Amino acid sequence: MSVAMALTNTLLAHSNKYAPGDDSHVKSDAPVPLSLRRRCTVETDSVAGIDVYTLTPKRGGADIEILYFHGGAYNAGMITPHWWVIRSLIAATGATVHVPSYLLAPEHTADEAYPSLDAVTDDVLLAAGSRRVVFAGDSAGGGIALAEAQRCRDRAGRNADHLVLFSPWVDVTMENPAAREVQKRDVSLNCDLLAAAGLWWAGDRDPSDPLISPANADLADLPPMTVVQGGRDVLAPDVIDLVGKVRDAGGSVHLEEAAEGFHVYVAGWWTPEARRALRLAAQGIRGDGK
Description:
The protein has helices at about 5-15, 35-40, 80-95, 110-130, 140-155, 175-185, 190-200, 235-250, 270-285, and strands spanning about 40-45, 50-55, 65-70, 95-100, 130-140, 160-165, 225-230, 255-260.
């Protein structure tokens, strides 16, 4: 573990744990940082009733489109670290990034949110033409990215060329007993609060439903994946199980693990672990060697 990662874990351990079961979270999105506005042209459009941010590099752009779904336990808007991750991906790939500000729980459920998410996905895939398309996301957004790839496959239309999943939340039930063991070392998340947030998102569905917990869906015939996961994260056991299931189904997955990494540790761009993971994610986004 690097010194930077150790210090970050210590700082996080002395801050308040994120409480996704608390509906007092800010629903509005953090503004796009000035560093990104200097690098990119930023546009906001409405698609199927939700805002979609599109960030296009002013220089050094590539023929790559990323559809990025943010985390926040399905009940919080974008925070500044989400923009940090997006900034890193743009800097490494030259991709144009589309970020939907999707409907949030508890005011809305997955059944209410997915029609607009599907519409955004379809728009990005159609407009991309021959350009490479990548679905990416962190935490809850990683769950959405996986679910959208499954839905594209099931509709037999165009799908993403690659998936990039940062600490994805793929089973909202939080029933894996191994997660309770990891919680002793997790500096930011709590299993019970996550499970409560998952119930909000599920609405009338069982939280184990594949739409809500995409690890329970058919995992065959999905795009190649890059999965980044930290060991000090209660989601780690389910993510490791997901990787094994995808491989058993014949899929291609590159798993990058940091044993002492916190939840979505790629946001900690000052750590060598995050920089390595972001380089590997960029390789998948660009399709290097494929």
